[in-house]
Design brief:
heterodimer, A: 310 residues, alpha/beta, Rossmann fold, Alpha-Beta Plaits, 2 domains, 6-stranded mixed beta sheet, 4-stranded antiparallel beta sheet, globular, B: 432 residues, mainly alpha, 72% helix
Chain lengths: 310, 432
C-alpha cells in the first residue's frame, strides 16, 4: 500500500469539510475521487499531500506517518492544483526552470527534464511565451508539467480539466493515461463523471465530506444493477407531472433539469407504460425517452438523490 | 525575477522616482537653486535715507542733549567719539553682507527702489532689502540715548525664491536682533540704574556695554555661517534624487509582501512548500530577493541621476555601506510584512503599509520637502528607513565621510534587527 489514510477529519469552524474518511492508494493505479463541488475532494488531497494537517486521523506513506515526516511524501509527490499554480509574468520555460530548481535539478539534467515535459505536453513551440498569454488549456498543461519535472512516484491531480476546451481536455486525459503506463500512481479528483469513468481503476465517491461509496467502476455500477435509468425530454416542465412520477411504484429517484427528467426505477418493472399515462393525464408531450446503461452519474444520483452538477 | 517582469511594479519602483526626481528637481530649482547651490542669491539694497545726513543729525542730537543738561559735557565728548564707530549701515555692508563666508552665497547691489522692484519682478534678484529713512540716526539714538524710535528693515522676497529669500531675511534678522539686544540691554541697564539712583554711573558705562554687545552679535552671524564651512551645498536635483529613491524603495518591501499573498492565492506557495522548500527557505528567499532588488533599484536611480543631472552621491566608501545597509533594512521590512500577510492570509498589512506608512514616512522623512526646520518631523523622520537614508546620502553628498553617518547606519541596523525579530516571531505562527 502506497498511502493509507484512516479516520481523516478536517473542520473549518463548524463546517465538516472532511468527516471521518478512510482512503487507500495502491501502487501503479489511477485512483479517482468523484464528487460535486464542495464535497471535500480538495481538502482530502491537501491532507494526503501533507499541505494541511488533519484535525483527526492518520496518513501513512509506505508505512511512515507523514505528520511526523512530511518530507517523506513530498519528495516523491507531484501535485497539480485546481488553480493554475504558475507565475503568470514568467514564461513556461522560466516557470519550469524555477520549479525544477526547487527540486534541486540543475544544468543539463534540468534542461533535459524540461524538454521531456514540454514534449509530453506538446508545448515546445510556445515555451518562451508568458503564461498570462496562454489559453486556459495550455496553462493547465504547463501546470501539469511543473509537477512532473522531478519524476514523481505519485501524481495528485485536482480537477485538472476545469474550464478548458475539449481538445486540451482530451490531451490531458491521454497524458494521464500515458503517465500511468510509465508507472506513476495517480490520484485524480473530478466532478466530471466521464473523466473518472474513463481514467480510474478505483473510485471513491464523496459528498458532504464523507465517502458514500467506493470500488471499481463495475462494483459501483453494480450498486444499481437491479435498477434502470430512464431519461426523457418533455415539451415543457410540469410540476404535477414530476410529482406524479415520484409517486409511481418502482420509481426510486427523479431528477428534473428543465425539460429533461431522469428516473431511476426497478429494472423490468414495466414503468414505461405508466410514464406515458402520467404524461397524458397532465397534458405533457414526451419528445424522447430512452432506457440507459447505468453510469457513475446514475450511481451518484442513486446514492445522493442529486446530480453531480447540482 | 517576478517583480522585474511585472511592469506595474517596475513603473512604481524605477520609472516613478526617476520622473519625479526630474519634475521636482526642475520645479524647486528656483527655491533650492537648481543645479547651483541652495545658497546662491543676489539681493538689492535700497537706501531710503542719507548716511551723511543721519550722521549730522546724530551729532546735533548729542549737542542738543548736552545743551539741555541731559548728559554731562565729558560724556558728550565720549559719545561724539563713538559716533564714527557706530555707522551700522557700513557695518551691515562690510561685516555682514561683505563677510567672506556670506559672500559665497549672497551678493548685493545698492539700487533705487523702483529699479530694485523691477529687477525682483523679472526674477533677476532674490530679494530687496529696504533700509528706512533715518536708519542710522534712530538706531544710534536707541542704543546710546534714553530714546526708543521704531526702526524697521523691510525685506521684499520673490515668491519663487522663498528659501533663498528666507535666508536673506534670516541674515538681516540676525543683524537687527543684535542691534535690538543691545538696545534692550541698554534700556534695562538705565531703568535699573535710575530705580537705584545711580543713573549717572550707568551713563558712564554705556559705551563699553553697547560696544561689547554689538560686537558679539555681529560675530554670531559670522559663526552661523561657519557651521557650513567646507561642506558642499545641495541642489534641488540632488535632494529629490535621494528623496524619491529612498521613498520608492519602500515599495519594494510591500511588493515583496504582496507577492507572498499572490503566491498563496495562485497556489504557487503550495507548490513551493511541496518541493520541500520550508518556511525558512521561503522567507530567506523573500529577504534576499528584496535586498537584491533594492540594490539594483538604488543603483539604477544613482546612475540615472548621474547621467541625467551629473549628480555625485558622495564617496563610494560611504555610499556603498549605506546602500547595502539600506537594502538589507528593506529586505527586513519585506520579511516582516510578508509574515504578517501570511499570518493574516491576506495582503492587508502591505496595503496599509503602501497607502499609509509610505506616505507618512516619506513626509516626515523629508522626501517631499526638507524637514530640518520642523524638529518633531525631523526627529520622527530620522527613525524611519527613508528618513535616515536621506540624511545619510545628503551628508555624503555634502562631503561628510562614513564615520559622520554612523548614527544613520545604526538606525538602519536597528530597524533591520527589529524587523527580523518581529518577522521571525510572526512567521513562527504561520502554518504551512
Amino acid at each position: 500500500m502506497l498511502i493509507q489514510a484512516s479516520n481523516l477529519k478536517k473542520y473549518y469552524k463548524k463546517v465538516k469539510a472532511v468527516d471521518d474518511i478512510d482512503i487507500e492508494v495502491r501502487e501503479g493505479e489511477i485512483l479517482g475521487i468523484l464528487g460535486p463541488n464542495g464535497a471535500g475532494k480538495s481538502t482530502t488531497i491537501s491532507m494526503l499531500s501533507s499541505l494541511i494537517k488533519p484535525d483527526g486521523g492518520k496518513i501513512c506513506f509506505k508505512g511512515t506517518d507523514i505528520s511526523k515526516d512530511p518530507g517523506v511524501i513530498r519528495k516523491t509527490l507531484g501535485i497539480v492544483p485546481q488553480d493554475v499554480a504558475l507565475y503568470p509574468d514568467l514564461s513556461a520555460l522560466e516557470n519550469l526552470k524555477f520549479f525544477g530548481r526547487l527540486y534541486r535539478l540543475r544544468g543539463e539534467e534540468l534542461d533535459g527534464r524540461i524538454e521531456e515535459v514540454l514534449d509530453l505536453l506538446g508545448l515546445n513551440g510556445r515555451a518562451r511565451d508568458r503564461i498570462k498569454h496562454y489559453s486556459g488549456g495550455m496553462k493547465r498543461r504547463v501546470n501539469i508539467g511543473a509537477a512532473l519535472l522531478h519524476h514523481p512516484e505519485i501524481l495528485i491531480m485536482d480537477e485538472p480539466t476545469v474550464g478548458i476546451d475539449p481538445q486540451s481536455r482530451n490531451h490531458i486525459l491521454e497524458t494521464v493515461k500515458q503517465l500511468n503506463s510509465k508507472g506513476i500512481t495517480i490520484i485524480y479528483t473530478s466532478h466530471y463523471m466521464e473523466e473518472v469513468e474513463f481514467l480510474c481503476d478505483r473510485i471513491y465517491v464523496m459528498d458532504h465530506g464523507r465517502i458514500i461509496a467506493s470500488g471499481t467502476k463495475e462494483e459501483l455500477k453494480a450498486l444499481i444493477s437491479k435498477d434502470e435509468t430512464i431519461e426523457m425530454q418533455v415539451d415543457r416542465a410540469d410540476e404535477r407531472f414530476t410529482a406524479k412520477l415520484k409517486g409511481l411504484i418502482d420509481v426510486k429517484h427523479v431528477d428534473e433539469n428543465g425539460d429533461r427528467i431522469t428516473i431511476i426505477s426497478n429494472k423490468n418493472s414495466g414503468i414505461l407504460s405508466r410514464i406515458f399515462e402520467a404524461a397524458l393525464e397532465n397534458g405533457v408531450n414526451l419528445k424522447s425517452i430512452q432506457i440507459k446503461v447505468p453510469t457513475l452519474e446514475d450511481v451518484f444520483l442513486y446514492l445522493t438523490g442529486r446530480g453531480l452538477r447540482d | 525575477m517576478v517583480s522585474l517582469k511585472d511592469r506595474k511594479s517596475l513603473v512604481i519602483t524605477l520609472l516613478m522616482p526617476a520622473v519625479l526626481t526630474t519634475i521636482l528637481g526642475f520645479a524647486f530649482s528656483g527655491v533650492m537653486g537648481g543645479s547651483a547651490s541652495i545658497g546662491e542669491a543676489k539681493i538689492a539694497v535700497v537706501e531710503m535715507g542719507s548716511r551723511q545726513e543721519d550722521m549730522a543729525r546724530i551729532k546735533k542730537a548729542i549737542e542738543d542733549a548736552a545743551a539741555r543738561g541731559l548728559i554731562k559735557e565729558e560724556l558728550r565728548d565720549e559719545i561724539l567719539d563713538l559716533v564714527p564707530e557706530t555707522d551700522f549701515q557700513d557695518i551691515l555692508y562690510t561685516e555682514v553682507l561683505g563677510n567672506s563666508e556670506v559672500k559665497k552665497f549672497l551678493t548685493y547691489e545698492i539700487m533705487d527702489r523702483d529699479k530694485a522692484i523691477q529687477a525682483l519682478e523679472r526674477g533677476e534678484i532674490t530679494a530687496v532689502v529696504v533700509i528706512p529713512e533715518k536708519f542710522l540716526y534712530n538706531t544710534f539714538l536707541n542704543l546710546a540715548m534714553p530714546f526708543k524710535n521704531p526702526v524697521e528693515i523691510e525685506v521684499i522676497k520673490h515668491p519663487n525664491y522663498t528659501l533663498k529669500g528666507g535666508m536673506v531675511e534670516g541674515i538681516l534678522r540676525g543683524f537687527t536682533d543684535a542691534l535690538a539686544a543691545g538696545i534692550i540691554a541698554k534700556n534695562t541697564l538705565l531703568e535699573a540704574a535710575i530705580e537705584n539712583n545711580v543713573g549717572e554711573k550707568a551713563y558712564e558705562g554705556l559705551e563699553s556695554i553697547t560696544r561689547d554687545i554689538f560686537n558679539v552679535r555681529v560675530r554670531e552671524i559670522d559663526f552661523r555661517r561657519t557651521t557650513e564651512e567646507g561642506r558642499k551645498p545641495i541642489s534641488s536635483f540632488q535632494y529629490y534624487a535621494v528623496g524619491m529613491a529612498v521613498m520608492f524603495i519602500l515599495y519594494a518591501a510591500s511588493d515583496g509582501a504582496h507577492y507572498a499573498i499572490d503566491e498563496v492565492r495562485n497556489s504557487t506557495y503550495s507548490r513551493v512548500l511541496l518541493a520541500n522548500a520550508g518556511l525558512f527557505r521561503i522567507f530567506a528567499s523573500r529577504f534576499i530577493s528584496t535586498t537584491l532588488f533594492t540594490l539594483i533599484q538604488v543603483t539604477i536611480l544613482m546612475l540615472y541621476s548621474k547621467l541625467a543631472f551629473r549628480i555625485e552621491w558622495g564617496p563610494p566608501s560611504g555610499v556603498m555601506p549605506l546602500t547595502m545597509l539600506l537594502a538589507v533594512a528593506i529586505g527586513g521590512l519585506s520579511v516582516l510584512l510578508s509574515s504578517i500577510n501570511l499570518r493574516l492570509k491576506d495582503n492587508r498589512a502591505s496595503l496599509v503599509f503602501q497607502a499609509v506608512f509610505i506616505q507618512f514616512s516619506a513626509l516626515v522623512g523629508g522626501s517631499f520637502f526638507p524637514v530640518g526646520s520642523v524638529p518633531i518631523m525631523k526627529a520622527i523622520g530620522g527613525m524611519t528607513v527613508n528618513g535616515a537614508a536621506l540624511e545619510g546620502y545628503l551628508k555624503l553628498m555634502r562631503g561628510y565621510q562614513l564615520s559622520d553617518i554612523a548614527g544613520v547606519l545604526s538606525t538602519l541596523a536597528v530597524v533591520t534587527a527589529v524587523c527580523f525579530t518581529a518577522g521571525t516571531y510572526i512567521a513562527s505562527g504561520v502554518r504551512e
